[in-house]
Design goal:
The protein has 513 residues and is mainly alpha-helical. The protein contains 19 helices and 5 strands. A 5-stranded parallel β-sheet has the order 3-2-1-4-5, with helices on both faces. Strand 1, helix 1 and strand 2 form a beta-alpha-beta unit. Helix 10 packs across helix 15. Keywords: Chromophore, FAD, Flavoprotein. Its cofactor is FAD; (6R)-5,10-methylene-5,6,7,8-tetrahydrofolate. One of its GO terms (biological process) is photoreactive repair. GO terms for molecular function: damaged DNA binding; deoxyribodipyrimidine photo-lyase activity; FAD binding.
Length: 513
C-alpha cells in the first residue's frame, strides 16, 4: 500500500480516531460525508418519514461546521448524495489508487448492511478496510463482559461492573495541520432543505433547544453549562425540568451526530471535579452517558430483536394499531394536557424533555395500548437528537419488553403533571387554549364544573378535546394541590430519593485519563 495513495473516511464526524489513523498512514486523506437517500424514505413498520425537518436542519448545520473546521486545518469535507457503498466505489474508480477505506463500526442492522456493502465494494477493488469502534464512553473491547452475550440485562448490574472494572480511554487531539485531498477532487456542494423536499422549520420562541448543529456549538454549550454558569453542579436537581435551556445539559443532539465525544465530556467532568466541585450532579452526567452506552451495547447483544414487536423478552402483548388514537397522540390532542403539551413541543421544536419522553411513551403503550413501534418511529421522525439505539432501547423499556427489571411500570399522567408542572405553567406554554384555567386544575379540565370551564373560556369537545382515555388511578389526584416547596418556573421540586451507586462512586479512587 503506497503512502501516496489516498484514504477515504466515509464517516468523519464521528471521532478523531478515524482521522488520526488516516493521518499517520497516507499522504492524501478524503474526509467524506454521504447523504444516504435511504435515510429520507419511510420507516420500517408504519411508513413515517425517517428524517424530519428539525434533525435535517441540525445535520446540515453540523456538516457545514465540520467542513469549516477541516478547512482551517488544510483539508475539507467531501460531500456527496448517494449510498455510501456506491459513492465510495465511484471515488475508488475515479482516483485509481486508494490504499484504504476507514470508518466506524455500527451496532444496528441498516448501518451494518451499509458496512457490508462497503466491504464488498472494497473487496472488488482490492482496497483495504480499516474500522474502529467509537461513539461510546467505554470502548467495546474494554467491557468486562466478553463475549457481548454476557452483557447484563439490567442497567444497574452493567453500570456497577463498568465503574469498578473498566477505564475510559483518553481522547485524541486533532492535528493542527491535516493531510490534503488528492489533486483535482471536488469537495461537492452541501445540499439544502429543499433538495430533500423539506422546508426550513421556523424556530419556535418557546423551544428548550434553540441551538445549531456542529462541534463549534457543542463546545460552546459545554463551556457555558460547566465553566461559565456552574449549572452542571446542580444538574441532578434540575434535570427533570420542562421549560428553558438550563434545566439539563442538552448534549444529546450533538452526541447523536458525533459533534462531541462522550469521552471529552467525561474528561471535562473530571477536570471540573478537580477544579470546582464533585457532587451527585457531576456524577449524574456520567450516569446518563452510561445509559447511552448501555443501549448501544444492548443493540450489539440482541441485534434485530430491538425492533421486534415482542421485544427483548419475547412477550406476547395484544398491541393495538388504532391510527385514530395514534393521530390524537402525535398531534397533542388526547385531552390529557400534560401529554398534549409534550407532544406539541416535540412537533414544534424537535425536542422534548426526558421527563416528558417517559410520560408520553408510558401513555401510548400503557394507557392507549398502542404498538410501541408507532411511538418509536414518530420519535425517529421528529427528534433532533434521534439515536437509533437509545430511541429503541428506551421505547422497549417503556413498553415493558426491554431492560426494565420491574414488571408493569406505568406512569400516572396526573400525578406526574402535578409533580413536575405543579402550577401548570408548562401546559399553559404549549396548550394555550387552556390558559384560562388557574393552577393545578389545568391538568384535569374534564373534572371541572361547567361554570369553571365557562369562566376559563374552555368548551370540552370544541376548544379542547375530551380525554381519549382516563385511567382509574388518576382519580386519586384530581383536585389535589401539589405540595412541597415552590420550584422554579411553576414546577414543584419532586421528592428526592437516595440514588444507588452514589456512595460507591465517591468511595472509589478515580483514575484520571
Amino acid at each position: 500500500m503506497g503512502r501516496d495513495s489516498p484514504r477515504i473516511l466515509p464517516r468523519p464526524a464521528l471521532c478523531f480516531q478515524v482521522l488520526h489513523w488516516a493521518q499517520l498512514n497516507a499522504d492524501f486523506v478524503i474526509p467524506l460525508y454521504c447523504f444516504d437517500p435511504r435515510h429520507y424514505l419511510g420507516t420500517h413498520c408504519y411508513g413515517l418519514p425517517k428524517t424530519g425537518p428539525h434533525r435535517l436542519r441540525f445535520l446540515l448545520e453540523s456538516v457545514k461546521d465540520l467542513r469549516e473546521t477541516l478547512k482551517k486545518k488544510g483539508s475539507t469535507l467531501v460531500v456527496r448524495k448517494g449510498k455510501p457503498e456506491d459513492v465510495v466505489g465511484d471515488l475508488i474508480t475515479q482516483l485509481g489508487s486508494v490504499t484504504a477505506v476507514v470508518f466506524h463500526e455500527e451496532a444496528t442492522q441498516e448501518e451494518l448492511d451499509v458496512e457490508k456493502g462497503l466491504c464488498q465494494v472494497c473487496g472488488q477493488h482490492r482496497v483495504r478496510i480499516q474500522t474502529f469502534w467509537g461513539s461510546t464512553l467505554y470502548h467495546r473491547d474494554d467491557l468486562p463482559f466478553r463475549p457481548i452475550d454476557r452483557l447484563p440485562d439490567v442497567y444497574t448490574h452493567f453500570r456497577k461492573e463498568l465503574e469498578s472494572r473498566a477505564k475510559v480511554r483518553p481522547t485524541l487531539r486533532m492535528a493542527d495541520q491535516l493531510k490534503p485531498l488528492p489533486p483535482g477532487l471536488e469537495e461537492g456542494s452541501i445540499p439544502t432543505m429543499e433538495d430533500f423536499g423539506q422546508k426550513d422549520p421556523v424556530t419556535d420562541p418557546r423551544t428548550a433547544f434553540p441551538c445549531s448543529g456542529g462541534e463549534t456549538q457543542a463546545l460552546m454549550r459545554l463551556q457555558y453549562y460547566f465553566w461559565d454558569t456552574n449549572l452542571v453542579a446542580s444538574y441532578k436537581e434540575t434535570r427533570n425540568g420542562l421549560v428553558g435551556m438550563d434545566y439539563s445539559t442538552k448534549f444529546a443532539p450533538w452526541l447523536a451526530l458525533g459533534c462531541i465525544s462522550p469521552r471529552y465530556i467525561y474528561e471535562q467532568i473530571q477536570k471540573y471535579e478537580r477544579e470546582r466541585t464533585a457532587n451527585q450532579s457531576t456524577y449524574w452526567v456520567l450516569f446518563e452517558l452510561l445509559w447511552r452506552d448501555y443501549f448501544r451495547f444492548v443493540a450489539l447483544k440482541y441485534g434485530r430483536r430491538i425492533f421486534s414487536l415482542r421485544g427483548l423478552q419475547s412477550k406476547e402483548i395484544p398491541w393495538k394499531k388504532d391510527l385514530q388514537l395514534f393521530d390524537c397522540w402525535k398531534e397533542g390532542k388526547t385531552g390529557v394536557p400534560f401529554v398534549d403539551a409534550n407532544m406539541r413541543e416535540l412537533s414544534a421544536t424537535g425536542f422534548m424533555s426526558n421527563r416528558g419522553r417517559q410520560n408520553v411513551a408510558s401513555f401510548l403503550t400503557k394507557d392507549l395500548g398502542l404498538d410501541w413501534r408507532m411511538g418509536a418511529e414518530w420519535f425517529e421522525y421528529l427528534l433532533v437528537d434521534y439515536d437509533v439505539c437509545s430511541n429503541y432501547g428506551n421505547w422497549l423499556y417503556s413498553a415493558g419488553i426491554g431492560n426494565d427489571p420491574r414488571d408493569n411500570r406505568k406512569f400516572n399522567m396526573i400525578k406526574q403533571g402535578l409533580d413536575y408542572d405543579g402550577n401548570g405553567d408548562y401546559v399553559r406554554l404549549w396548550v394555550p387554549e387552556l390558559q384560562g384555567i388557574k393552577g393545578a386544575d389545568i391538568h384535569t379540565p374534564w373534572a371541572l364544573s361547567s361554570a369553571a370551564l365557562s369562566q376559563a373560556g374552555v368548551t370540552l369537545g370544541e376548544t379542547y378535546p375530551r380525554p381519549v382515555v382516563t385511567a382509574p388511578e388518576w382519580s386519586r389526584h384530581i383536585h389535589q394541590r401539589p405540595g412541597g416547596s415552590p420550584h422554579p418556573r411553576g414546577r414543584r421540586r419532586p421528592a428526592q430519593h437516595k440514588d444507588r451507586g452514589i456512595d460507591f462512586y465517591f468511595s472509589r479512587k478515580k483514575d484520571a485519563c
